[in-house]
Amino acid sequence: MPELAVKDFSEALGIRVEDFPRETRQYIQTNDFRYCVATGSERETQLLRAVRALFSDLSLSGPERLPSWEKGWQETLHDFLASGLDPKCLIPKFVRKNECIRFRGGLRHACRPRL
After folding, report:
1. 35-37: strand order across its sheet
2. How far is it, in rounded angstroms, from Cα 72 to Cα 64?
3. For residue 81, what are the CA distances in angstroms to 38, 64, 71, 73, 78?
């Protein structure tokens, strides 16, 4: 089962491995970043969802969305501080657990529905 390592994060973000803080490297090395590649019917289902979303009433980004963006991040900050600085509270509410993402030319998702 493939797993993301510090090198993979480095390449994806365009940051040299040695420029990651030591704590970040340790976090990546000690946590489960295994992923599964969506294939077959799962891949087709995810692609169909994406196409349907493109033809739905999506909110457009832009200056008029700034108040909504600020409100969302204010809520995230409040939750983070109220939790005693739990990093899990920094994940924005619009991020759904175990969603497929496009990464390195394919659809991937965490093997454990943590992210």
Report:
1. 35-37, 106-110, 101-103
2. 14
3. 36, 28, 15, 12, 5
pLDDT of residue 21: 94
Q: Please say whether the dihedral angle defined by the alpha carbons of residues 72, 81, 9 and 39, taken in this order, is positive or negative.
A: negative
The per-residue pLDDT for 115 is: 45
Q: What is the pLDDT of residue 44?
A: 95
- Long-range CB contacts (within 8 A, 24+) of 5-9: 5/29, 5/33
Give CA separation, 77 vs 19, 24, 49, 54, in Å. 26, 20, 31, 30
d(CA 73, CA 108): 26
Give the predicted TM-score (pTM) of the model: 0.64
CA dist., res. 71 & res. 78, Å (int): 10
Strands (E), 3-50: 35-37
Stretches where the chain sits below pLDDT 50 are 115
